Amino acid sequence: MRVETIVVGALQENTYLLIDDAARRAVLIDPGAEAPRLERALAASGATLEAIWLTHAHVDHVGAIAALKRAHDVPVYLHPADAPLYATAVQQGAMFGLDVEPPPPPDRALADGDVLRVGTLDFSVMHAPGHAPGHVVIHGHGVAFVGDCLFAGSVGRTDLPLSSGAALARSLDRIAALGDEVVVYPGHGPATTVGAERRHNPFLNGIARIAGGA
Ligand SMILES: [Zn+2]
Ligand SMILES: [Zn+2]
After folding, report:
1. What spacing in Å lies between the alpha carbon of 156 and ligand 2's midpoint?
2. Given Cys at both, which of 16, 98, 165, 197 links 93, Cβ 3.0 to 4.6 Å?
3. How confident is the model at residue 156 (pLDDT cuts 50, 70, 90)?
């Protein structure tokens, strides 16, 4: 298994190319912008794209889907609770001054406990609402793609439309229970581990909660 990080767009979003090298199959997680760069990374990997998996539907995570779907007949996976956000990707982009092509409708509905497969590798879906109502964490094989739930040293915003700080706190508890060794790939910024965040992140080690934070 191989994970490549491609930082894209004005909001510096992490698109992940997840590759099963043995099977030469790959998925793109949160293709947020700059489809040509994502295509080059995919071509360089030598793998065939199987699917697009979305942690959530904020515009910085979905902006390259339309272009990718023209080149690859692959399904887009999204939790249905984020459908209202997904449907407003263009308007979300306008708020940031971004010109975004509307993404075609999602093809598959994610649910808590689902198993996703790329090549021969299985990953589990955890519904992790809070930053967005249909946010999911995709985890397995010692890694977790956490989107904007959790960052190195911080957590996702909960002051956005459809966000919930209380829901995010519950989701962070479930992420923390994945195990200290699990490598965390967030939607922005560097990778980290559950253990490092449990020790140092004020939103996970209780300091910010006592202070009334997330
Ligand atoms: Zn977000
Ligand atoms: Zn984001």
Report:
1. 8
2. 98
3. very high
pLDDT score of 205: 82
* For the CA of 12, the nearest ligand: 2
- pTM across the whole model: 0.96
- In this structure, which ligand is nearest to the CA of 128? 1
With beta carbons less than 8 A apart as the criterion, state whether 158 and 168 touch: yes
In CATH terms, 2-210 corresponds, of 3.60.15.10, 3.40.50.720, 3.40.50.300, 1.10.340.30, to: 3.60.15.10
**Residue 76 Cα, ligand 1 centroid: separation in angstroms?**
17
Q: Which ligand is nearest to the CA of 149?
A: 1
Rounded CA separation 15/31 (Å) = 5
How do residues 173-200 score in pLDDT, each as one tens digit?
999 999 999 999 999 999 999 999 999 9
